[in-house]
Amino acid sequence: MDRRAYLLHQVHPAKLATDCAADAVSTWLMWRGRPRTALLVAHLAAAVASAGVTRRDLSTLEGTRRGAYVLQHMPPSAQVVRYLGQVVAWRAAYRHRPLGIALGHVVVAAGWSHGLVWGALPSSRTGAVAGPP
Asked: Please, which domain of life does this record's source organism belong to (predicted)?
């Protein structure tokens, strides 16, 4: 899978819905003290959704705002931040810490918001401010 398809598949509605559902279920499983099952559910659901979505034509997503956004503003570092936020939420759920779960999801949102933060800062090369996605 090329980089464009990899980024675009992340904003496909089926993939987003699967990831949100897997987050909710896996976080609940962590709360219930079932970490192996939680990790299996989360990663298996993500893998199945990715496999299904990447078999489709993703070119229609390129013309959408969310497609343009991920193509321009989703570097690997932002994806790492998103995953680390999920790990924080899982750990907090396992320890029954609701505020930690919320914090983890704030970190996930921060990873998705990379372009909103970094896209509004002056470019180091040109001094220009990037516009909205």
From this structure: Bacteria
